[in-house]
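Reading a protein record of the kind used here takes only a little practice. An example makes this concrete, so a full record is given next.
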Amino acid sequence: MRIIAKKILREFWAIYPDCEQQLKSWYREANRSIWKNLNELKQDYPSVSILNDNRVCFNIKGNNYRLIVRINFDYQMMWIRFIGTHAEYDKIDANKI
């Protein structure tokens, strides 16, 4: 998967350094993956939440942080739509972000 844009993650872990290693690990794993559909992604990340419009929400660092991405499986691309604390996540509409 090609992930757009890592800069968002770097800026986030500059503010919340306690999640830097988890975000780096997630990025490496996702970048190396070739998921063809949501079922394959769920095999690697069983706790991922499936949202509308090919969006998924990953729990980062024991669910302290939430990462929402939009995936195009045909083109093997993933766009970061949101990264934030659990409290920030609760304030957004995850299906529309």
User: Anything to note?
Assistant: DSSP finds four helices and five strands in the chain. Residues 2-90 form a domain with the YaeB-like fold fold (CATH 3.30.2310.20). The two ends are 21 Å apart (CA to CA). The longest helix spans residues 20-32.
